[in-house]
Amino acid sequence: MNPHKTFRLFLASWLMVGVSLWAVPSTTLVYASTKDIRDINPHLYGGEMAAQNMVFEPLLLNTREGLKPWLAERWEVSKDTKTYTFFLREDVVFSDGTPFDAKVVKQNIDAVLSNFKRHAWLELVNQIDKSEVVDAYTYRLTLKNAYYPALEELALTRPFRFLSPKCFQEGETKGGVSCLVGTGPWVLSEHRRNQFAHFEANPTYWGKKPLLQGVRWRVMPEHQSILLALQKGEIDLLFGADGDMVDLDSFAALERQGRYRTLMSQPIASRAVLINSNQPITSDINVRQALQYAINKEAIAKGIFNGSEVVAHTLFSPTTPYCDVELPSYMYDPVKANTLLEKAGWVKGKDPIRTKEGKPLVLEISFNAQNAQERAISEYLQSNLKTVGVELRIVGEEKQSFLDRQQSGNFDLQYSLSWGVPYDPQSYISSWRIPAHGDFQAQRGLPKKAWLDETITRVLIEPDSATRHELYAQMLRYIHSQYVYIPLTYSRTKAVFSPKVQGVEFSLSQYEIPFERMSLSR
User: pTM score, two decimals?
Assistant: First the structure.
């Protein structure tokens, strides 16, 4: 065959594949993400939460106005607040045609309970005593204790969302599922791993239908590629926190150009650095306290976040429920930092790095190598700590390696981002008791770690609001006095989008993207 003809045929076929991959109808919004959606089984944690939220729904919703009926049109709570009876909508079907009823609710919740160890970070899972079908559209959940965040946790993005029974494998979901079918406004119609996922509007959706016909979730690991695609009009929307968003300089430049619209949410979560109290150097409380004074948070807020994030002096914002507790602020003060390091026995000699018994004061901070902002913050920290005689080594690694460090506790310093409302504070502090979480590992060396874990369990099942406030105050005062967290700023979700995209807004949770409220004007 003529080699030129062969090449032309190859090129034509390649272009056709390219068109099939990226060409979308005019009523489909193209969203760019650095991450693939992966496995969005709603009962596990391997998939992107925003994608899970598109397909799978809860009994009720967390909103800024409070809890809102959803798949349950109403509910009743017993006087002892241990029994919850849900009255389900009778007009809901899964996108495969399967009716949604009380039997399906029980089957899904039982599947979550069957994987108890994986979900133990969420205290509601530990508190469930009975899961019962009352009649076709009435479901009852009974708890062991009066658990105050029960309804809020049933409304979270995972794991209490509902999957079609046809997708279960041998009555379970913990080992994988055969399909990904929910009751939500979107149907996952195609998924090419690490390339794209395509969601179509659910034609049988029981609620208000999406204004868009579809959403194309395009995977673009490089931020520079995302910027180029945005400028060429190949994508319509960027949305998210650090990992999925361009850096702040690019964000500001896009704002100035006026060709794109930008939005920024209210502060939603706490950005901090974990200090491991169970490591040889940082087990000394004087060292941990010195690190608090050595970091110039104002410079980080202005230099890295362009003033878009406010400095955090406490782990949780005072506006977070139960967190309006008066705590001292550790302001930037290198003199105090030096004094505390001297007190801990770390002295300066001819070398700018302090030593103790012949060993240099060297710490290591690890971060997700794909997160440009964490790299920039690390460099600021490195510079700050050098001025007080501390060498900080920066280790950027793949996300899985970063997570492995969290689980093993093999770190001196590591980044931490709280989960924001509706998870903060109750669900987030609940996870502090689980060894697989970095918070647990960082707290292991604390003298009252056992008391802290016991108090977390106690506050979650405390029926009296005033007593809960006092227990939260005790925990927050203790953790603040032990210097395990260096609060930096309160993070904000950001969006960059084409002017043709209408209805862009933020949900209560930073992990959800309300595509169903968006539309396109072509």
Answer: 0.91
